[in-house]
Design goal:
Layout lengths: L8 H5 L7 H17 L2 E2 L6 E2 L1 H29 L19 H22 L3 H23 L6 H8 L4 H22 L4
Helix pairs in contact: 2-3, 3-4, 3-7, 4-5, 5-7
Length: 190
């Protein structure tokens, strides 16, 4: 039984000619992530930002290939010194306290994009599941990396997860509304 992946949401939201489509989508995606990263509230070692919402929405809308590629390009652009991350840029960011979360974005984009192309972004319940899984991947990478900067796991969780759970719940609820709504507006539920 061979299963195929559906076209991602972006294919319908922003239909473009084949020639430059991937390049334009990637550029728009990097800009989208950079803009959401500027939504920032400093609360400690790891700030609250719009990046997580941006990565998960982008991955669901772009699918696994383009979502992963775009998120990787976003990291490269930030590493090169362009201020696309939340308040900073350069290679130092990819070695600092938030680096694990940034690396987790790429893995989360792969997972969320793949599940979205299997239709998991078309209903609120499945979107909830996908967004939770994406957050789990980001937290797993982020907390594992952050642990090297903290004296113990309790502190790591206190710095890198506990303060963000309510904000993540709000972001997940927003994605649960936006993604299925976009598919309904487009009239493409299957």
């Amino acid at each position: 039984m061979k299963s195929t992946l559906a076209y991602p949401l972006i294919h319908y939201l922003l239909p473009l000619p084949d020639r430059w489509r991937q390049v334009i989508y990637a550029a728009v995606g990097v800009l989208f992530l950079a803009l959401l990263a500027q939504i920032r509230v400093d609360i400690g070692a790891v700030p609250i930002t719009g990046q997580t919402l941006g990565v998960l929405l982008l991955a669901a809308a772009y699918g696994w290939r383009l979502g992963t590629l775009t998120t990787g390009i976003y990291l490269l652009v930030g590493a090169s010194g362009v201020p696309v991350f939340a308040g900073s840029a350069g290679l130092a960011v990819l070695r600092g306290t938030t680096a694990g979360y940034l690396y987790g974005f790429v893995l989360a984009a792969l997972l969320v994009g793949y599940l979205a192309q299997r239709g998991w972004d078309k209903t609120p319940g499945r979107t909830l599941a996908v967004m939770i899984l994406g957050n789990v991947v980001i937290y797993a990478c982020g907390l594992t990396w952050l642990r090297q900067f903290a004296p113990d796991w309790a502190t790591t969780l206190q710095w890198g997860m506990t303060p963000f759970l309510i904000g993540d719940a709000i972001k997940i609820a927003l994605a649960m509304l936006l993604l299925p709504m976009a598919w309904r507006v487009l009239g493409r539920r299957n």
